[in-house]
Amino acid sequence: MTTTDxxxxxxxxxxxxxxxxxxxxxxxxxGAIFDTLYRxxxxxxxxxxxxxxxxxxxxxxxxxxxxxxxxxxxxxxYVAGDVSLVIVEFRLDVADEQGGRQIITGTCTxxxxxxxxxxxxxxxxxxxxxxxxxx
Length: 135
Known about the structure:
This is DUF4440 domain-containing protein. InterPro entries: DUF4440, NTF2-like_dom_sf. The protein is α+β, with helices and mostly antiparallel strands. The chain has 3 helices and 6 strands; from the N terminus they run ααββαββββ. It has a single domain, classed as Nuclear Transport Factor 2, Chain: A (Roll), CATH 3.10.450.50. 22% of the residues lie in helices and 43% in strands. It has a 6-stranded mixed sheet, covered by helices on one side. The longest helix is centred in the first third of the chain and has 13 residues. The chain is globular and about 45 Å long. The model has no long low-confidence stretch (mean pLDDT 92).
């Protein structure tokens, strides 16, 4: 159930709120909405390789068009001024090549930056799977 206003995404100082906003935006299936949580120059390897800018945005849109579902929990959070390191454990339910479903678990290391209006935004998104699915 979505608990975040997806039309007005705001990441507050509360790391649990940040995590829930990411889950809700990701699970909406709308890559354009999810991408608003990233700086323009942010780096993400959600697609399997580090992407930034328009390539990152398209990679996110393409991934979310496949209908994955995300769940995650914050395991560590460190804040130094306008930089936050957030480490989460994730569970991702994705389509496999045969049209079935597969579960990928892992750890994601995120670097967030505080903006001038006291909001947080993703600078680096680096999920690592515990084990990659076999083909």
